[in-house]
Design goal:
This protein is mostly helical. The protein contains five helices and no strands. 72% of the residues lie in helices and 0% in strands.
């Protein structure tokens, strides 16, 4: 699985900003009011950011602890990372990054429309749009960072450097570690 690039997330945000602006322009021509997100949306997004980063940090710390033990003692004494858990956290991080870019782009487009001359900007419209757009972009950045945390360090001796797979996600490495542990037991 290839990691997300920050340029791709920025491109998604720019495309959806244009879409948000065009959608609000079309809606306002038909007499619809300005779209304003509720204040509960940034609160929920902050909760998602916290949960996402906590889960990714858990995967990162377990992987790094295991790598350090293997480096120091020749073998790891802690439980390997559950590969399905690591994969779920990695997919959550990717989903949050893309969702944050899409939602942030849409809200930036709506904010640009609210600030341009045909519309009369009011604090009741601009403030929720700006706060929610900022938190949405933070969600994208947090997802990108969490995805980076869900990777093995490149100098991990168990990451299969002979096959050129160093820096893979921990779900792959954990699956390899689980198979090695099962081989040692039998």
């Amino acid at each position: 699985m290839k990691p997300l690039r920050i340029t791709r997330l920025a491109l998604i945000a720019v495309i959806f900003a244009g879409f948000g602006w065009a959608a609000q322009t079309s809606l306002s021509r038909f007499g619809w009011p300005q779209i304003v997100p509720p204040w509960s949306l940034p609160v929920v997004l902050v909760l998602i950011i916290v949960i996402e980063l906590a889960l990714a940090w858990h995967v990162r710390s377990r992987v790094h602890r295991r790598v350090e033990e293997r480096r120091e003692h020749g073998e790891a004494h802690t439980e390997p990372v559950d590969p399905f858990f690591a994969l779920r956290v990695l997919l959550l991080a990717k989903a949050c990054a893309v969702t944050g870019a899409v939602l942030g782009g849409l809200l930036i487009g709506l904010l640009v429309f609210a600030l341009l001359p045909p519309a009369s900007p009011s604090t009741a419209t601009v403030l929720p749009l700006a706060v929610t757009a900022g938190v949405s972009l933070l969600l994208a950045v947090a997802g990108w960072v969490a995805e980076r945390w869900c990777r093995l360090p490149p100098d991990d001796p168990t990451s299969g450097s002979e096959s050129g797979t160093s820096g893979t996600d921990p779900s792959t490495a954990a699956a390899r570690q689980t198979l090695r542990a099962r081989e040692h037991r039998s």
